[in-house]
Here is the input.
Amino acid sequence: MAQTPELDQLLLRLLAKVALFDGLDRINLIALLAMMRRAEFAPEALLFEEGDDGFSLYVIISGTVEVFRKPPGGEPVVLASLGPGDTVGEMALIEHLPRTASVRALGATVALELSRDALSSRLPIEAALCRNIARMLAQRLRRNNDALAELAAKRPPPAKA
Here is the structure.
């Protein structure tokens, strides 16, 4: 991704702070940046939709996005709001399954897109990212389990027959 040297340095500093890229040295961060494509989204634009084929992840550079699911026959449920330095779509790098949620830009948003195909040519980076993805997914699962336990505790006991 060719930019001005100043912009490249700014993006490298941002990538170095992204949890997904934890442990990557500067050389690998430079290689990673070269594999990424800049993507701009207008307010309310979808980065991707639940059920779409997943083939890339996005690193939010500026703006805010909303991760949501729409249950059958129900209203959309917001799962998270994310901003600069956050990533969305990382599961697409490790599994070839449809997206599990939709992501919408809440305002003008700029992101860097990393495709599975671009990454597969860089095995050391891919291995490090897969470890980080596994760690991030485990953290999310723990948070979801805690939230589910809280909801279950608030539910009234079943009626006796």
Remarks:
- The mean pLDDT is 84.
- Residues 123-154 form the longest helix (32 residues).
- Residues 78 and 125 are 31 Å apart (CA to CA).
- The helical segments are 5-17, 26-35, 116-120, 123-154.
